[in-house]
């Protein structure tokens, strides 16, 4: 399996967000979120190596129920037109114990019909986290289940995921996020231009992402680009989606 080296991480410039008092509650004065500009430069990998305990901390911070309701309400309160507001989105992260799968697995139950957890669960996605071979990063992969009927059955129960093997899944290493520990929080990014897909459109595009994880706070920003480098507009999502943990 390929791995990232000290020459393969890019700098995400930081900028302070102050979307709402709920989002900022408990944050230190110098808390910043990476700026939503496309990363263009490579940076040295952090000198500090990560351990299994860091991986455990990372995944334990993710487990729970997340909602972007504070960000949506802030846009309503500030008078953003409904057509320009972001969509209400909630997620339930659950740890999956699957002994036959390398790394640590989390299943995400996605509630994105605009009603949060009061709405219907739309789909389940499966994510794997493991240390890079040089231990500088946590590798984050979205796993695709090959059996469509099995995938649909997860709407009833996640327990069958405990029995899956490497033969049941496929992953695109080119679309990994690489997470590093800054001393205060985890920051992640994809490799620029590496994730090429036609899963969302009738042509190849590149997908890039940034993320920040703090205790009880999660930011992510996914962006799509034409192969020419021109960004594909996604109204309401020009800036990062910000979630707060609403329960464990």
Automatic annotation (TrEMBL):
It comes from the Bacteria. This is CpeT/CpcT family protein DUF1001. GO terms for molecular function: lyase activity. It comes from Litorimonas taeanensis. InterPro entries: CpcT/CpeT, CpcT/CpeT_sf. It holds the Pfam family CpeT.
């Amino acid at each position: 399996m390929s791995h990232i080296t000290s020459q393969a991480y890019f700098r995400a410039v930081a900028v302070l967000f102050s979307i709402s008092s709920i989002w900022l509650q408990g944050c230190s004065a110098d808390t910043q979120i990476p700026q939503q500009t496309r990363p263009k430069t490579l940076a040295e990998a952090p000198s500090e190596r990560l351990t299994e305990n860091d991986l455990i901390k990372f995944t334990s911070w993710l487990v729970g129920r997340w909602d972007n309701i504070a960000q949506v309400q802030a846009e309503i309160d500030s008078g953003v037109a409904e057509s320009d507001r972001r969509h209400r989105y909630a997620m339930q992260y659950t740890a999956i114990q699957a002994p036959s799968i390398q790394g640590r697995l989390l299943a995400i139950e996605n509630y994105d019909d605009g009603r949060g957890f009061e709405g219907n669960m739309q789909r389940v996605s499966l994510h794997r986290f493991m240390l890079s071979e040089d231990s500088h990063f946590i590798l984050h992969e979205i796993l695709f289940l090959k059996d469509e009927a099995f995938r649909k059955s997860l709407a009833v129960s996640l327990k069958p995921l405990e029995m899956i093997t490497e033969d049941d899944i496929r992953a695109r290493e080119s679309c990994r996020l690489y997470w590093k520990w800054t001393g205060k929080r985890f920051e992640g990014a994809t490799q620029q231009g590496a994730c090429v897909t036609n899963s969302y459109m009738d042509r190849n595009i590149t997908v890039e992402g940034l993320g920040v994880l703090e205790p009880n706070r999660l930011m992510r920003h996914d962006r799509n680009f034409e192969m020419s480098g021109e960004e594909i507009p996604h109204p309401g999502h020009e800036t990062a989606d910000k979630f707060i943990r609403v329960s464990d």
